[in-house]
Amino acid sequence: MVFAKEDVNYSLYLVTDSTMLPPGTTLYSQVEAGLKNGVTLVQIREKDTETGSFIEEALDVQKICKKYNVPLIINDRIDVAMAIDADGVHVGQQDMPIPMVRKLLGPSKIIGWSVGKPSEVETLAKWGPDMVDYIGVGTLFPTLTKKNPKKSPMGPQGAIAVLDALEEYKASWCRTVGIGGLHPDNIQRVISQCVATNGKRSLDGISLVSDIMAAPDACAATVRLREMIDRTKYQFVDCELNESFPTAVSIKSVISQVSSNRPLVQHVTNKVHQNFGANVTLALGSSPIMSEIQSEVSELARIPNASLLLNTGSVAPIEMLKAAINAYNEVNRPITFDPVGYSATETRLCLNNTLLTYGQFACIKGNSSEILFLAKLNNDKMKGVDAGSGKNDDALLARATQIVAFKYKTIAVCTGEHDFIADGTFGGECKLSSGTAGVTAEGLPCVMIENGSIPIMGDITASGCSLGSTIASFVGGLDPTGNLFDAVVGAVLLYKTAGKLASTRCQGSGSFHVQLIDALYQLFHENKPEKWSASLKKFN
Ligand SMILES: Cc1ncc(COP(=O)(O)OP(=O)(O)O)c(N)n1
Ligand SMILES: Cc1nc(C(=O)O)sc1CCOP(=O)(O)O
Ligand SMILES: [Mg+2]
């Protein structure tokens, strides 16, 4: 049987590996369990098997695939693919060159190629539509399955660069599957985040080995994977993802929710911020806990209305930070990420980029330099941890905020003379192939908050970090029907209004600290957003 290439379903692509079979299972039982429960494409990849045995295994797997009308791809071995008339092959950068593979297999067979960077996309585009039919985009996350990997994990941002290259070089025919370390805890995030910048395509499928091949119950594993892939809504926080612009009424509702839910706000933050952040959190009717204890983070994440503030100003152990992200993502509790001094040093840049790839954030907050750098709109080295050469160009800053929101499918906050907040969550919608249906960063809801300058804000420690505490309190205190965008916008509006109020009441930077906490407390408990001095303007 010859499969029409346009009919190939890449959505759940199983790659075999007999070296990881659990007791009581076989290559065939795992493949059949996968096919019975939603695997749509199979590749036999048995790196340690001699040719004769490999051909026997391939023929047996082929029989099973035919039963389910699913194509069979052969890893590396073009000769074996020809010998058994398989439906195609998958080759990597170190295997037989694609033009030779195509010459041997003919035009109707499926050819897959491993791609790890945009330059390889340029090459396939030059070959044209008759050569590569799909690409394996990876290695997305760390994996033990592929021995001596030549590529370091690229994360969703690396996959976006490959998708962008497919769009740039107009390789519209070429399909894509993500591969490398894919499991139920990251599949939805991958589908949601791996979208071309022009919004026109996302990955066409998820390809994996160990989640099925090493599963004692491969049926259950496949059912779970299938469900994750087919779910078109990625609810990464247990509150509503946004459909509307914030108003005084909706922000009033947020404060009522925070007030009654009294969220626990776990701060993983720098030492300078800890005391003041705790007092800000208390002023907002929330409960702070300053904990960097890896062994308790899962317990804390499960406390009702828990919220995590990750402020990388002081570099806590990376394993603790990863454990915290995992723990809160696992229970859909919000994480507010403040990549303080994002690129001030190589250490911080590496740490922050690792964390950005590692999990999903409800909100990413930064000063203008951090946001411009995250958006790749300003590569200047930052000056220390304060806003460096960030530009006071509102349009540029709004655009950068939208770009960060789009790249990470999050609520992005850019603080400065004016604050910008953009919603890149798309209401949690995430689909294979279609991306964001062409909606780009520029189309994202974005607001600007103005309240005049408050110079004294820069004369105290942790004023920026404590906006993070405020945001974490607000997003943590939402009801499940609450609105994430409302919460973040409300937090910034409250914080800016309190800053202005405190600046009129203080005698200097010392009393400003105290007055800021008083103002936050007073405004929060009054809950009259319609009277706040900070104004909100739609930026698009
Ligand atoms: C779907 C898919 N993507 C990538 C690979 C890796 O292929 P390759 O780079 O040739 O490495 P080996 O699999 O040969 O070790 C793949 N096999 N399938
Ligand atoms: C076969 C393969 N190719 C990769 C690439 O990056 O090209 S990663 C990989 C192994 C993926 O196994 P698992 O799903 O168990 O992580
Ligand atoms: Mg290979």
Automatic annotation (TrEMBL):
Q: Does the keyword Nucleotide-binding apply?
A: yes
Q: Which cofactor does it need?
A: Mg(2+)
- Which keywords has UniProt assigned to this entry? ATP-binding, Kinase, Magnesium, Metal-binding, Nucleotide-binding, Thiamine biosynthesis, Transferase
Kinase: is it a keyword of this entry? yes
Pathway given for this chain reads:
Cofactor biosynthesis; thiamine diphosphate biosynthesis; 4-methyl-5-(2-phosphoethyl)-thiazole from 5-(2-hydroxyethyl)-4-methylthiazole: step 1/1; Cofactor biosynthesis; thiamine diphosphate biosynthesis; thiamine phosphate from 4-amino-2-methyl-5-diphosphomethylpyrimidine and 4-methyl-5-(2-phosphoethyl)-thiazole: step 1/1
List, alphabetically, the SUPFAM superfamilies matched.
Ribokinase-like (SSF53613), Thiamin phosphate synthase (SSF51391)
Q: Mind telling me which CDD domains this protein's record contains?
A: THZ_kinase, TMP_TenI
Please list the residue ranges annotated as the Thiamine phosphate synthase/TenI domain: 12-212
Record's catalysed reaction(s): 4-methyl-5-(2-phosphooxyethyl)-thiazole + 4-amino-2-methyl-5-(diphosphooxymethyl)pyrimidine + H(+) = thiamine phosphate + diphosphate; 2-[(2R,5Z)-2-carboxy-4-methylthiazol-5(2H)-ylidene]ethyl phosphate + 4-amino-2-methyl-5-(diphosphooxymethyl)pyrimidine + 2 H(+) = thiamine phosphate + CO2 + diphosphate; 2-(2-carboxy-4-methylthiazol-5-yl)ethyl phosphate + 4-amino-2-methyl-5-(diphosphooxymethyl)pyrimidine + 2 H(+) = thiamine phosphate + CO2 + diphosphate; 5-(2-hydroxyethyl)-4-methylthiazole + ATP = 4-methyl-5-(2-phosphooxyethyl)-thiazole + ADP + H(+)
User: Which InterPro entries has this protein been placed in?
Assistant: Aldolase_TIM (IPR013785), Hyethyz_kinase (IPR000417), Ribokinase-like (IPR029056), ThiamineP_synth_sf (IPR036206), ThiamineP_synth_TenI (IPR022998), TMP_synthase (IPR034291)
HAMAP family to which the protein is assigned, alphabetical: TMP_synthase
- The name this protein carries in UniProt is Thiamine phosphate synthase/TenI domain-containing protein
User: In which organism is this protein found?
Assistant: Saccharomyces eubayanus (Yeast)
